[in-house]
Amino acid sequence: MITLVGNRIRVGILATLAGPQLLIGLWAVLAPRNWYDTFPGIDPRLVAAEPPFNAHLATDAGAGFLATGIALALAAVWGHRAAIQIALIAYVGFALPHLVYHAAHPAPLLTGVEDLLNVAMLASGPALAGFFAWRARFVPTAVHAPQPGADYPGPEHWRRLRTSHEVNRRHERTEPDGGPATTAQSTLERSKP
Q1: Sign of dihedral through CA atoms 114, 120, 122, 128?
Q2: Is 84 exposed, middle or buried (0-12, 13-18, 19+ CB in 10 A)?
Q3: Among 29, 63, 66, 104, which has the minimal tally of Cβ within 10 Å of its Cβ?
Q4: How does pLDDT run across 85-124, given as a tens digit for each residue?
Q5: Minimal CA–CA distance to 3: which of 150, 147, 139, 158?
Q6: Among candidates 36, 90, 37, which has minimal Cα distance to 64?
């Protein structure tokens, strides 16, 4: 049985985690110099605060943002609890070292307040991931029912199988040799005079 996560959690993940990761990642991969010079698009410019520019490093960082954004977006759209939890763990695996680095290494071109705000913003990502993981674990969820025509048995199959098994158990008797009768028919044959 597949457990789906509620829509509020899925939309929350898309809006607060996947969306920003995808945008930042695409920006850095497609225009690394522009990303370096202007990110986040308003002052203070956070990436340029740690010179020098390195196109390879900027593109690789963008690929990390993009990969985690794709994982989060796909998991949120798919909606399966296990997929969402795995994507959130992958995101935290990216975001936590990023946070620790910035907390331990103030940027030379940022003021103390700007550095503090940067670290607070970075800390919000793992905190949100933890919140969404917690909510996905404890909030009532929908259960995915197999679709008709799927290549795996649906609920009707399991109901028929259970009913068939119960009928066979009711008619089960022992054979003269001490072994159980395998079908209701063999029980009927034995009961004839």
Answers
A1: negative
A2: buried
A3: 104
A4: 999 999 999 999 999 999 999 999 999 999 999 999 999 9
A5: 139
A6: 90
Integer Cα distance of 118 and 121 in angstroms: 5
Written as six digits, the tokens of 124 are 């919000």
| Residue burial 136-145, b: 16+ Cβ < 10 Å; e: rest | beeeebeeee
- Which tokens sit at 50? 């740690």
Terminal alpha carbon distance of the chain:
48
63-67, 84-88, 126-130, 163-167, range with the lowest pLDDT: 163-167
Please choose, from the candidates 114, 135, 124, 100, the residue with its C-alpha nearest in 3D space to the C-alpha of residue 20. Answer: 124
- All residues at 6 or more sequence positions from 184 whose CB lies less than 8 Å from its CB, including other chains: 167, 168, 171
State the DSSP H helix or E strand holding residue 188, giving kind and residue range, or none if neither.
Answer: helix 184-191
Please return the burial class of 36, using the count of CB atoms within 10 Å of its CB with bins 0-12, 13-18 and 19+.
buried
Query: 49: number of CA atoms within 13 Å, CB side?
Result: 20
Q: How far is CA 188 from the centre of its chain?
A: 55
